[in-house]
Design goal:
With about 260 residues, this protein is of the alpha+beta class. The protein contains five helices and eight strands.
Amino acid sequence: MSNGAAGSLPQNRLPDAASVLIEMTLVPRSGAVAHGAAPAPAGAPTYRILRTLEVDEYEDPVPPAEVLALASARPPPTDNVFRGTARRAAKLSIADANMEAFEDLNALIGTLQDHATMVAHPGISTKATNNRVAEEKRNVRVKAFLYAASREDDNDFHLIIGRDPAKPAKYMTVEISGLPPSNSVHFAALKEARDAYFEFFGDRLPGAPYDFYDPPIPVDIEGSLFFDASHAQGGRPGPAKLRPKMPVVWEVHPVARIVFEP
């Protein structure tokens, strides 16, 4: 494991210098808001956070002054309720399916239904009540690396995971979801995943523009597959430097379990 020194990733996997406004250090599971976790021991891995101006292709730019205001410690939000509407039923539920395990993100992407078929799928709409169709009724576990993350208006955290940095680049979105009502049968699992995310990052959570992590953070992800019909046409998700290597708008959404530095 690298200690996050500058230059540990090739430049073509890091944001352009002009888009980086702040550099910070992430010491995992440390800080006053890390849910009582002990500070990282001496010699434990640290990561460089590059806080940028980059947003998804379909989002409005964020003024630099707003990004600079995010340089101070940012504790986990007190409002964790999901605030979106598009395909709400699917986004807040875990599929009733066996778990499929993948050692590499590329292998998972290779199993996904093609884009044109999903765009034309008669069972998918952006209505709040629209639930998973057959192609999405899959639970997956994948070993990957966290390259970048942002927080969305609907209270989801938008994570860009990718392959081992030693392999040819390929990325995909996974979402730490805002929470359903507490009486939902899915509430406990989604809250556990969100709490694990908060615990690892402590007071270094991202805002609306993307944070990049150098080196990328190893993760094990479990969750249900989801086709992002809202962004299947037009602007695509992901930061500018990584977006060309994001071949699908499929996601793992919601994440039901996340383990950092497995």
